[in-house]
Design goal:
Blueprint (H helix, E strand, L loop, with lengths): L1 H9 L2 H25 L6 H12 L4 H8 L5 H35 L19 H15 L3 E2 L5 E3 H4 L19 E2 L2 E6 L4 H10 L4 E10 L11 E11 L4 H16 L5 E8 L2 E10 L16 E10 L1 H6 L8 E8 H9 L12 H4 L7
Parallel strand pairs: 1-5
Antiparallel strand pairs: 2-4, 3-4, 5-6, 6-10, 7-8, 8-9, 9-10
Helix pairs in contact: 2-5, 3-5, 4-5, 6-11
This protein binds phenylalanine (PHE).
The site of phenylalanine has 11 residues, from strand 9 and strand 10.
Length: about 375
Amino acid sequence: MRGALFLFFLVPLQKIINDTSQLDMIERIQQLMAEVAALKADSAEEAEALRIKYLSKKGEITSLMNDFRNVPSELKKEVGMKINELKNAATEKINALKEAVSIQQVAGPSIDLTRTPYPIPLGSRHPLTIVKNEIVDIFSRLGFTLAEGPEVEDDWHVYSSMNFADDHPARDMQDTFFVESHPDIILRSHTSSVQARVMESTQPPIRVICPGRVYRNEAISARAHCFFHQVEGLYIDKNVSFTDLKQVLLLFAQEMFGNDTKIRLRPSYFPFTEPSAEMDISCHLCGGKGCSFCKHTGWVEILGCGMVDPAVLEANGIDSSVYTGYAFGMGIERITNLKYQVKDLRMFSENDTRFLEEFVSAY
Ligand code: PHE
């Protein structure tokens, strides 16, 4: 008590008041700084209430500024800077709160826009598409261009123009889907119909690759389906020979199944090629030694091929005395089975995503 009285007499009254209010003021500014930093608002109304509380005419920070004139002039600079900092911090904070609640209102309160997103699950290509793209890619590099045609075809493009005799067994109801009211309209049973369409509209040189879906009237099982996919190739020019065909097919087999793949051609028969052959590749699972996959022969069949029959060239408006050509055709399912050992053909059309997701590829 004595000390206080003593002080009271030594220091002028005004100075004491000023010093105390000065201390209070700095403390108050610091307190408000902390308060402002911790402000939260869940709605636009709450954010506006905060603005009124701190920054309106009667707000706490504004009233601090009013008290500023009582600050002794030697401290005005320091206190003034602090008040300004506080005012700026409060304005910034409250504006940020206002913006955050307005975004939340648009997006709905349950969405946290700041959360890192889960990885978006990407789809995978269908295995048949992957293999088709790979086949097309290999032949494109050899100068083949893509050709496509309709799946619903007429007898001429599927059979007659391809040199099928009128009584050829492939025309039988067993194989071909007919439109009952229009027996001439059929679902194509091979992509050779695209060859016919290209030949009738283009003069050689022709070098096309024709991928597509084909239909055959077969009971569905693990080994057969009523639809499947083929890729057919056609090359017509002057002086095209069987050697050219062999060379292109060897290159294809090695690109598709690896550089040490060997090929073997066996004589065969197709109405539209003469001579015709079927091509085997050395079994890439056992390297040709023999395994259950190649039925212990060391070879697996992958395609049919041959020199285009002159009758086919003529039927499609190409002079067979000037031009020769080769053609080949393969089943995409077959090539896919060889690459990925899919045991059951039905897997390709069942849309089971557990199966489909296993195929991730650059193609
Ligand atoms: N079109 C034949 C088939 O469906 C395949 C093939 C095409 C054979 C071209 C030889 C030449 O089996």
